[in-house]
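Our preliminary data section would be incomplete without showing what the modeling component actually yields. Below, a chain of 244 amino acids is followed by its predicted structure, encoded as tokens that our downstream tools consume directly.
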Amino acid sequence: QMADPFLYNTGERSKYGCLGHEVQIEHIKAYVCRPSFFTDKAVIVIHDIFGWLFPDIRYIVDLIAGHGYTTICPDFFKGTDPWKTTDHWADFADWMKHHDPMKVDKEADVVLKYLQEQCSATKIGIVGFSWGGMAAHHLMLKNPQLAAGVSLYGSIIRDSEERYNLLNPTFFIFGEKDHTISLNQITLLEEKLNQYCKVAYKIKVYPGQVHGFAQLKPEDMKPDDKPYIEEARKDMMDWIQMFI
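Predicted structure:
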């Protein structure tokens, strides 16, 4: 029996009334939220295992849009089932085989084209959470069109040298008490980035925080965690605003 790595019950979430709308882009559905004024700046948000419909991720999209970015969360699972709170962790490895965070390039290209052609975006960044943090890390190694990235608690999967040669500035956010990612792995990431990375990068570990901490809506936050969640989100936005 594998322990549930999230330590919070994703079933007990307050409802969220979204500010954006859904669009169909080629073979992908996406949730989009735009600021009230014109901008040529955009951010792609990559969801976690719970998918693009999950209220927490839509809240994040709206939050980023509120800072003046056209913000979009595409369904990177392409209509296949996200992980559900009722699923068994014993089946997780098998589920992951069919939901590979390293196989998102085609969808990212479709979304980039949409942002450039339909939303007049000239500067585009990416933010990913958990599964999406892995996907964001991957895309920051592969896609020079992404001007900056933030990877939040994406597992550090493979220890190969090309994993550290980031194309553009990338910020890695972790929780100190995330038992899916060890502090040793984070130290190794730092050493390797120091060795191979030729662009700006940053790694920050937030005290006492578990996996998934940074995407909670205000009413779902525990008072002790709130300052760290707010700090992580401010740091995330500061990084995006520095480069985009």
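The beta strands are 21-25, 28-33, 41-46, 70-74, 123-129, 146-152, 170-175, 201-206. The domain at 21-243 is CATH 3.40.50.1820 (Rossmann fold). Preliminary results of this kind motivate Aim 1 of the renewal.
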